[in-house]
Amino acid sequence: MELRGPSRVEEKLYTLRWKHDRTSHIAITDPRTCADRCGDEWRRPCTTFCPAKVYEWDPEQARIVVAYENCVECTTCLVGCPYRVIDWRPPRGGFGIQYRYG
Amino acid sequence: MEVEKFDAVVVGAGPAGAAAATTMARAGLSVVLVERGEYPGAKNVMGGVMYGRMAAEVVPEFWTQGAPIERVVVEERIWLATDDSAVSVSHRSPEGAYHPDGCPNAFTVLRAKWDRWFAQKAEEAGALLVPGTTVEDVLWQDGRVAGVRTGREEGDLYADVVVLCDGVNSALVERARLRDHPVEPHQLALGVKEVIGLPPEVIEARFNVERGQGVTIEIYGAVTRGMSGYGFLYTNHDSVSVGVGVLVSHLMRTRIPPYELLEGLKQHPLVRPLLAGGETLEYSAHAIPEGGWRAMPKLYGDGVLVAGDAAMMVNGLHREGSNLAMTAGRLAGETVVEAKRRGDFTARTLSLYAAKLEESFVLKDLRKYRDLPELAERRPDLFGTFAELVNLAAHEMLTVDGLPKRDKQRKIWREVTRRKPLWGLARDLYEVWRAIR
Q: What share of chain B is helix, strand, coil (3-state, %, to 5)?
């Protein structure tokens, strides 16, 4: 039997609706930590635990690229960043994810 | 210009906040219910099973008032699963699905719909709902919490009491000095889920239920791939919620992306046929506070109370949370009503809230399971191993191949003790018993 539907995370994100703000509600407070310490000790877990693939490591720029538009506001990164360098704040009122089912 | 002041500001229009606002507004207090979503529920996710008794204590006979109930749970199944098999335990009782007064015991909901409806009850009681508004900080006056600062221009709201119901990882709990250390990764789970659309009659045939009836399935074992947590399937009216939640500390170690975990669950040979032909309507993810009693913040301060996920009020073993939130929100509301009567909003009177919670199932249950979060963090292998062993035993006993049953018993025992020495098995059982007794 076949299961139709999105198997990749990009496809899963297509099912969602946001009201996008023009500025990011997420900032990396100390990018050096991601490049050095976190790379050595944790291999940047935000790039794997984030359910919306907000965080991606860019080896050329040697920094985490933040796709804040994808954020589903689960708040896991607040706790899951081993060095607490992710400054996540709720998007401005009315902006961000808008679940229709939840 | 004179600053407008309310009796209470409630932050967050989820189950806790709406329950608190309804309780206070009904007693005649002036209440503002601030919600950062464009509508209540816009940011909220759970499995989700809601419990009727606690909802009815806020909105009596809610089931007769157009509440967005998906299906009333008549059967609960627990699967101990390997990659391709499961031992299942279930309880089915269509009659027992209701309390004597007709209130459904457990029912499935979709939070974007339920929260909207539930918050509307607070509005009907007289609370002022202010959606699309983020609270950025608490305001202090003479060493006590005196209101909140919202993101709106001239958006300061003053009140005798602020009730924080702003959900998991609340920044305001720290701003209100009710917690001085951040939540740790082992005190948090991440749940990911898909709502998969299917025609009602297909759901009813596949899950063996009638119109309006529903089934819950919790799946322990291989589906969490060595992490502490479980998968779930909950039937809605014309969709099935399928998801999995695991500890964030374990996700950090295993580096398994949560959406791949979810995909694995959907493709599990026992799950796939239940979802076949369905279309994913929505993907979602949310953190779940799993630190339990030991990780709770202080529940009250001068001019402030905290309830629901913001206060770690989740009983993970029994997949309960929204019911604890509704009860805590209601008790917070009752406390503020009493504080208003006394004209004292200091911690002395507001401590009544903690006393009420102590008397209720909320703190009694959380205290009972206070050692479980530590065990879940330390022993992610427990469920997987146990599931392997019971499936091995069941498979051997049910395979009719000419081997006499006594020989089969010996074979099972040999295989079980080879994988798990007897003393290890005994120790594990003792540890689990100690954590849940």
A: 40, 25, 30
